[in-house]
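re: the backbone from monday

yeah here it is again, tokenized this time
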């Protein structure tokens, strides 16, 4: 029996899923992060190997391919051996914003890199640090984790590399990047899912994977969630309701607009659908989401209070729920302040206002994508922890005005396992 392993490194922890040739789940695992460990590569490594150990040995022996997703724009500088030279910058770290003025002089107008949290502005900021003198490679989170398994330094995929400036239309780095005279090597970029290299012998011996097991190029966590969702047609969208909120809409038109935090990922021909033209995942990621809810309520409280909300009624509360100042999409403003007042004495009323406010942000995001030419929204699949909240789903239906349903599988790890399977079997890319 051939099995395929997908690993998901999201904002609140790591998960894994093992699927068979019929795409049925055979095993899963979970490794939650605490906030302090989120940006420590040694903790990522510990999580990765812990997930391996959670998979029964009899299943590990049949794993033929492994793929890993990571949070978009979580990046780090490494030396020639792959050792990190400093702490990584996480997906939502805005310190690179000070490099935007330099980048505006070089990058094309409205380019995806012209964002306070893009991989490229983070790279420019990290290159100013004293530790950069030891750096040889820029790697994304998924790149580095995969490197631990295959040992080939400097390999990425075109989903992770998008915000580094990689040209996903022509599948190369653009000429304007050369003007930056970067002091490190940018990664070689592959199609997500394509085979990189065999798993290292020491990893095979330690964990008992198949001798023929390979590592496939990965993706980002939100794209993995899209792959897992079951969405296949232009006009279908996927909202990931995790710690943050990310939306993706499958479209015939590519859209980039840094003013609003909109960008487009090239979508590989995973299922050989709509082969007459390229497909794009158009979307953006907001800093609102479940992390804000957990500032105020435990999981049990969220479940109990949500059950008491009348989702057919509109809340009079108008919030912009953020943990701290700064928003990426549908408003791109690193100084946007959270709006969480007034707070009513009734917790049910307060939660209703929070859920409805997040739903308005989601709906505004999809409206923007369509205003700029994306396919008309026809259906929304929901991934992440918020997919199970019935009241929230009803509120979102009211604002989105299309069918809203839980993804066929809500776990990004499952989507990454599908990517490993399709890659091992010979992914057909555009």
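seq for it, each position gets an aa:
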């Amino acid at each position: 029996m051939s099995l395929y392993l997908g690993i998901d490194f999201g904002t609140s922890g790591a998960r894994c899923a093992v699927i068979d040739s019929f795409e049925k789940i055979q095993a899963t695992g979970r490794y939650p992060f605490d906030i302090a460990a989120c940006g420590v590569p040694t903790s990522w490594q510990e999580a990765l190997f812990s997930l391996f150990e959670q998979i029964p040995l009899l299943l590990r022996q049949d794993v033929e391919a492994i793929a890993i997703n990571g949070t978009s724009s979580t990046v780090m500088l490494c030396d020639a051996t792959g050792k990190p030279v400093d702490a990584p910058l996480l997906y939502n770290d805005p310190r690179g914003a000070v490099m935007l003025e330099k980048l505006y002089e070089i990058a094309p107008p409205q380019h995806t890199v012209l964002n306070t949290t893009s991989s490229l502005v983070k790279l420019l900021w990290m290159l100013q640090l004293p530790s950069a003198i030891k750096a040889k490679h820029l790697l994304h989170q998924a790149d580095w984790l995969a490197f631990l398994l295959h040992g080939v330094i400097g390999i990425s995929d075109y989903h992770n590399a998008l915000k580094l400036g990689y040209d996903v239309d022509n599948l190369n780095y653009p000429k304007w990047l050369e003007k930056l005279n970067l002091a490190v090597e940018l990664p070689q970029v592959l199609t997500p899912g394509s085979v990189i290299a065999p798993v290292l012998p020491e990893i095979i011996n330690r964990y008992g994977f198949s001798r023929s097991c390979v590592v496939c190029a990965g993706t980002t966590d939100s794209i993995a969630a899209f792959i897992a969702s079951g969405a296949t047609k232009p006009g279908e969208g996927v909202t990931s309701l995790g710690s943050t909120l990310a939306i993706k809409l499958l479209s015939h038109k590519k859209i980039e607009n840094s003013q609003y935090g909109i960008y487009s990922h090239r979508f590989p021909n995973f299922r050989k659908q709509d082969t007459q033209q390229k497909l794009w995942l158009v979307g953006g990621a907001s800093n609102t989401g479940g992390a804000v809810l957990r500032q105020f309520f435990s999981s049990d409280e969220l479940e109990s209070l949500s059950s008491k909300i009348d989702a057919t009624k509109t809340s009079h509360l108008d919030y912009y729920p953020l943990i701290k100042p700064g928003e990426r999409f549908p408003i791109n403003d690193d100084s946007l302040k959270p709006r969480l007042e007034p707070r009513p004495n009734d917790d049910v009323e307060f939660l209703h206002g929070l859920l409805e406010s997040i739903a308005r942000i989601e709906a505004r995001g999809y409206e923007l994508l369509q205003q700029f030419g994306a396919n008309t929204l026809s259906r929304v699949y929901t991934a992440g922890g918020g997919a199970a909240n019935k009241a929230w789903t009803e509120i979102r239906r009211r604002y989105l005005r299309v069918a809203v349903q839980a993804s066929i599988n809500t776990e990004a790890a499952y989507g990454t396992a599908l990517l490993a399977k399709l890659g091992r079997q010979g992914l057909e890319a555009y």
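The chain has twelve helices and 17 strands. Residues 61 and 208 are 5 Å apart (CA to CA).
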